[in-house]
From TrEMBL:
NCBIfam families: AmmeMemoSam_B (TIGR04336)
Family that this chain belongs to: Belongs to the MEMO1 family.
A Pfam cross-reference name: Memo
Transmembrane segments: none
Organism annotation: Phaedon cochleariae (Mustard beetle)
Protein name, as recorded: Protein MEMO1
InterPro entries in alphabetical order: MEMO1_fam (IPR002737)
């Protein structure tokens, strides 16, 4: 059996199961259940010291009683992909307990001819999916024997490819037993990220970053994939999970086209920055958490 190790445990987050469980409990208890039960969430994937608290606001919206399968869409940071890739592992380790890959859904997705497979090295080196596994394990701990996961590594997609994957995944999004976790940080600002957009009308640099992020968040809340693509082209905002977000927006549109009786509501619940930039030598990463409710 192929097993993916938790390579970022002990650095990006603690490798002590007891300590991790306590941290996650604390962050979940700090958050309010205000927009659930979530069919999808958007949450960050940085080290927990930076974004663990922010992520709790998204994970708090999940109803573990309902969910039986979790799709995790994370952007590829290290390998070039023009499409999406599935995990070839059967099991993902976490400091809490092991999560099992849904081989049936992997086979169904492979049959579409639109997915490739990532090798174990790529899988283990990528943090955008791994950083969600402890939260998933924590939230689902009372139902761990009934849970499977479907990790999907997302490459640099054209809007047409985002729409293609949205169509494929929309039938899974339609099932309340499925939850989609969309892995994304927001603006990466500073010379080290080669992005220094600054609109002085907002005031300080960190206020400009927040303003820019909130424009994008508003467009995502409007569930408009075309407008989101236009926003990214106009401002170049360094939202690393823009393609997973694009797939989600396309999947929602497809679902609503196929069933006009459904209502979809996506709300951002928390926004944070790793630090407040005040001069051009500073840098920061923004984090945001959101939940999608479909009824």
């Amino acid at each position: 059996m192929s097993v993916r190790r938790a390579l970022h445990a002990g650095s990006w987050y603690t490798d002590s199961g007891a300590e991790l469980s306590k941290q996650l409990d604390y962050w979940l208890n700090q958050a309010e259940l205000s927009h659930g039960p979530a069919r999808a969430i958007i949450a960050p994937h940085a080290g927990y010291q930076y974004c663990g608290a922010c992520g709790g606001h998204a994970y708090r919206q999940i109803s573990p009683i309902v969910v039986r399968r979790i799709f995790i869409l994370g952007p590829s940071h290290h390998v070039r992909l023009s499409g999406c890739a599935l995990s070839s592992a059967q099991k993902y380790k976490t400091p809490l307990y092991d999560l099992h890959i849904d081989s049936q859904v992997n086979s169904e997705l492979e049959m579409t001819g639109q997915f490739e497979w990532m090798d174990l090295d790529t899988d283990e080196n990528e943090h955008s999916i791994e950083m969600h596994l402890p939260y998933i394990a924590k939230v689902m701990e009372n139902f761990k024997n009934q849970l499977t996961i479907v990790p999907i590594l997302v490459g640099s997609l054209s809007p047409e490819r985002e729409a293609c994957y949205g169509r494929i995944l929309s039938s899974y999004l339609a099932d309340p037993k499925n939850l989609f976790v969309i892995s994304s940080d927001f603006c990466h600002w500073g010379h080290r990220f080669r992005y220094t957009y600054y609109d002085r009308s907002y005031g300080n640099i960190y206020q400009s970053i927040e303003g820019l992020d909130h424009v994008g968040m508003g467009i995502i809340e409007n569930l408009n994939p075309t407008e989101f693509t236009t926003y990214l082209k106009k401002f170049g905002n360094t939202i690393c999970g823009r393609h997973p977000i694009g797939i989600l927006l396309q999947a929602i549109q497809e679902l609503l086209r196929n069933d006009s009786s459904q209502n979809a509501s996506l709300k951002f619940l928390k926004y944070a920055q790793s630090s407040q930039c005040r001069n051009m030598n500073d840098s920061s990463v923004s984090y945001a958490s959101a939940a999608l409710v479909i009824d």
